[in-house]
Amino acid sequence: MKVFSCRAVSEVVGVLLVVAIIVAASVAYLTYGVHSMGSQSSALTDAMRQAQKRSQILLSLTYYEKKGNTIHLYIYNYGILDAKIDQLYVQGSRITAFTVKDMDTGDTIADKKIPAGKLIDLYFTRNLSGEVDIFLVTGELATFSWKISL
Questions:
Q1: What does the pLDDT look like over 109-145, one tens digit per residue?
Q2: Lower CB density within 10 Å: C or N end of the chain?
């Protein structure tokens, strides 16, 4: 007849308890790792989509002129996507009061977009002379910069 001691039973329970703790910790760690990798993958996918959109916008400053204190920038969008002007900086200062006009129709573009395949007149009023730095940011975070001499 076999007699089990209390010590043997407590050692088995202890081993089972340690194994259960290790398994629970491993599951928690793997769950966090999979979630973290999914978040990073999603962020990378979003960044790639934004970069693709930016590559489909190509703005070119074709001509510029100064009439009094009004600066006219004639910009052509060679890209295949419309470019919504989000921010305009001149000499490091943000310009919020500017107008975008379609050169084909002469109509003002209220949402400040530069349609694909179109020439627009972007104009604003500032008393500037000499070399002027212009920096434009689109809603897709595409950036364009030009240096003009007035």
A1: 989 999 999 999 999 999 988 999 999 999 877 889 9
A2: N
Does the pTM surpass 0.70? The reply is no
Percent of residues in the chain assigned helix, strand, coil, to nearest 5: 35, 40, 30
Contact yes or no for 87/58 (Cβ under 8 A): no
Domain 59-149 CATH (choose: 3.90.120, 1.25.40, 2.60.40, 2.30.30): 2.60.40
Provide the 3-class DSSP secondary structure of residue 121.
Answer: strand
Whole-number Å distance between alpha carbons of 72 and 125: 9
Domain ranges of the chain: 1-55, 59-149
